[in-house]
Hints:
single chain; 401 residues; mainly alpha; Fic-like fold; Arc Repressor Mutant, subunit A; 2 domains; three-stranded antiparallel sheet; 16 helices
Amino acid sequence: MSNGLAGAGWPLIATEELRWQPAATFALPSGQARLQAGPYRAAIAPEIATVPDVPLSAETRSLVTEAATEIARFDAEVGADLAPFSAILLRTESVASSRIENLTASAKAIALAELGDTDRANATVIVANTTAMQAAIALADRLGGDAILAMHRALLGTTEPEWAGKWRTVQNWIGGSDWSPHRAMFVPPHPDRVPAAIHDLERFLVRDDLPVLVQAAVAHAQFETIHPFPDGNGRTGRALVHSLLRGKGLTRKVTVPVSAGLLADTSSYFDALTAYRDGDPEPIVERLASASFAAINNGRTLVGDLHALRASWDDTISARRGASAWRLADLVLSQPVVDSPLAQRQLAVTAPAALRAIEQLVDAGVLTKMSGRQRYRRYSASQVLEALDAFAVRAGRRGGS
């Protein structure tokens, strides 16, 4: 076993030597078979609950302060709007977090998946990530191990029910081969060490003596180091960031799409996680703070595009003021693919009234008919879908432009 403290005062990861026990017998190349016979080293996550402070340069501390101010300002200005931008931003964050894991889908595919279309696997998984984000926000006032399990259950409960909402009972690893943890880039703690590591993380999460962004960045990196699930660690770990931001009051009404800020340079994000495991928390703090600026700039552009789009519909919708068509126009900003049952539920109207509102928006050019029989036909707000796809494109570019 190895121990120590980083030179800057942050605890280093320890490691321990373990014997690899394959779960089953596989037909392996001889070289792989020999490799599996030897021991491997797994991490022991350092205890961080009582570390006095997170060592950061004056420059990074200043960046964190500026980023927190900008997040609070964005939350106040967008959260005060009556339009459904909170739901839109939460969805865009879920989409961006999924893209970091190479799970991509168009805004149209995601909107169809929200209506129950299971033809596009990635879109279905991304919608589940939105559910996990919603769970993270809902549990922000009681953040801990149980809340993390609930987030993971919301994320994978449909696709991987045997793993969802349960700490892992097997060794996992990052990089290397599919056969064993030998030569992996990083081997998280043995499953027997996960409960204690999560308990330490829980104690860190309730601290109130650290800047919220610093605490969120470190908690995220520590969670990714523990890697407590067989799958879904990255998405759950980024949901944890938003739960903490909401629980600590830095955000109150909207979800800042931080993952969209990370997308422009995922290599530096993963490098920052590696640096954390090497005993340096500063890169992940700097990366999260910098990503916040990129995310807010992109989010403001999206909100502005949708504001302008909604205003332009005022000149084309001919329904009388107060008619359901106007409320449906507000709804399609956050639900850009709709059908009659959805309109009935969301507007609390009858089927004939829902179809009448839909047809009025079709006549106004807001909605376009999609495939399907009349009773089950779906309609898309193509301009909203284009704005959401444009947001995703900007997120993948340096500078966001």
